[in-house]
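User: structure tokens for Transcriptional regulator, please.
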Amino acid sequence: MEESPSSRLLGLFAGQRLTPTQRRIAQSLVEHAPRAGYLSSGEIAELAGVSQPSVTRFATAVGYDGYPALRDRIRELIRTDGRAETPDEARRNEWQRAVAAEHDNLTSLSGFLADPEPVLAAARVLADSRPLPVVGLRAGGPIAEYFGYFAAKVLPDVRVCTAGGSVLADRLEQAQAAGATALLTFVLPRYPVEALAALRAARAGGLRVVTITDGPMSPAAEESDLVLPAPVGAQLVFDLHSAPMVLAMVLLQAICDARPTETQARLESFERSANRRGLFAG
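Assistant: Done. Predicted tokens:
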């Protein structure tokens, strides 16, 4: 399967020791991969929320003489086939381009899943945790709730928390006291400070932290034991989270596969209860 532009740019920056500011620049280039090679250093600076000189210093830090040389390399990576934009592609409106970019993000996720071991390793860690705390703050909240809704049908004790501060600290402390050994978190741009603090506190308390975030350059990656990357769409006013949502369900499938007998028994019990109470119309 051909790599997406986002995947190629991730490979360009992988293994680099970057400052937080430089990680923001790299992440902005990855998020805007289809057009990153045609943006000026000023436009990149604006997207990343940094100064223009910071972009120049970033280019030097990753091994190029300046931003123009880095931009040339990015162009090579995002157009490896040398193909110009087709007339149909050129006529796309901004909504169609956003959807097309999500297709690229899902292609990138599919490439990551070609090696199942990272997801399987995370599933083994999470499947053994009783209870299983799940945390998502701000943009990560809806995905944490979505995961938790379905996970509760196959796991005996799933505790979703979408509130930060002392409430989150209380929930994590209570979960650990009840026997939790792991924590699943969803940390998405713009990376809530409270979420990062919670990851540090959880690891300090002995929990193994599995994080779904938008890429290996996310600040959440440094605070986690296992990281599962899923790119986030940034073409519209607010981010699109198609890939993180898909990855959440893939992870839950892997958790189910880790304990098939228990999963099947709990699903059958839920179906009997749902039928008895007439929960669904179909």
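User: Anything notable?

Assistant: The chain has 14 helices and five strands.
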